[in-house]
Amino acid sequence: DSGVTQTPKHLITATGQRVTLRCSPRSGDLSVYWYQQSLDQGLQFLIQYYNGEERAKGNILERFSAQQFPDLHSELNLSSLELGDSALYFCASSHSTGQEAGTPLHFGNGTRLTVT
Amino acid sequence: GQSLEQPSEVTAVEGAIVQINCTYQTSGFYGLSWYQQHDGGAPTFLSYNALDGLEETGRFSSFLSRSDSYGYLLLQELQMKDSASYFCAVSGGATNKLIFGTGTLLAVQP
Fold first, then answer.
1. Antiparallel, parallel or unpaired: β A10-13 and A5-7
2. Separation in Å, CA A116 to CA A12, A61, A113
3. Cβ of B40 and A110 within 8 Å?
4. From the candidates A43, A53, A57, A107, which should be mutated to test the interface with B, based on the most B CB atoms within 10 A?
5. Which helix (H) or strand (E) holds A94?
6. pLDDT beyond 50 at B94
7. Helices assigned H by DSSP within B1-110
8. What does the pLDDT read at residue B97?
9. Which of A79-83, A94-98, B38-42 is the least confident region?
10. Which residues on A lie below 8 Å from B101 (Cβ)?
């Protein structure tokens, strides 16, 4: 158990809808990262927050947004959903300010999103 | 930009040794990490190399050559439970984010 909690585990929704994925980092970790993994694909970096502030951004679509709250949990909001958004969405946390110096990322079990 | 290349699949038998290669292109390189993922589960950290050479952790070792932009993960005494996807990832670039390769699916056969 990595200590990172993601909810829900599974989500099925229709095209055009909006969903919110939630992540609670490991105790003491200030950085939260979101990754998208489509079928048989690698992990695509979406966005990183550190202590409530956006730290780095990947190829995140404008339809997607995220935030980190004062209690350090994070939410990823996906709107105007399309079939291609179906994927596993992982949250990870680390105790560092960034992904430097080999600080391991601790991943949650992911949220499997299916858009029909 | 940043890109990484790994073989898509590798097959080996129990007890054997297998090497998974990774070549990368990136700016501002800090280091190369390896993660293991079982069947869509949570990826787990295996190793990190910042300097050239071999790092050993039990049955797993990881190597880096910064001049060749190349690294590999070496798995010894393969066990069935080692069947998984293995991802290399680079730290670096303007935003210092961790970029993953597309992964290598290792199948260990009896």
1. unpaired
2. 7, 19, 10
3. yes
4. A43
5. strand A87-94
6. no
7. none
8. 72
9. A94-98
10. 42
Helices and strands per DSSP (H, E), number in chain A: 0, 11
- In this structure, are residues B25 and B2 in contact, taking their beta carbons and an 8 Å threshold? yes
A98 — pLDDT class (breaks 50, 70, 90): low
Determine phi and psi for A115, rounding to 5 degrees.
-105, 125
Report the alpha-carbon distance of residue B20 to residue B87 in Å, rounded.
9
A60 touches chain B (CB under 8 A): no
Q: Tell the residue number behind the tokens 């070496």, with chain if given.
A: B74
Query: For B101, which residue in chain A has the nearest alpha carbon?
Result: A42
Distance in angstroms (rounded) separating the CA atoms of residues A43 and B101: 8
**With an 8 Å Cβ cutoff, is A45 touching chain B?**
yes
Q: For residue B92, give the chain A residue with the closest CA.
A: A100
Mean pLDDT of A10-24: 98
- Give the span between the Cα atoms of A73 and B54, in whole angstroms: 37
| Chain A residues lying within 8 Å of B49, measured CB to CB | 102
A-chain residues within 8 Å CB-CB of B95? 55-57
pLDDT at A35 > cutoff 50? yes
Q: Any CB–CB contact under 8 A between B10 and chain A?
A: no
State mean pLDDT over B46-70: 94
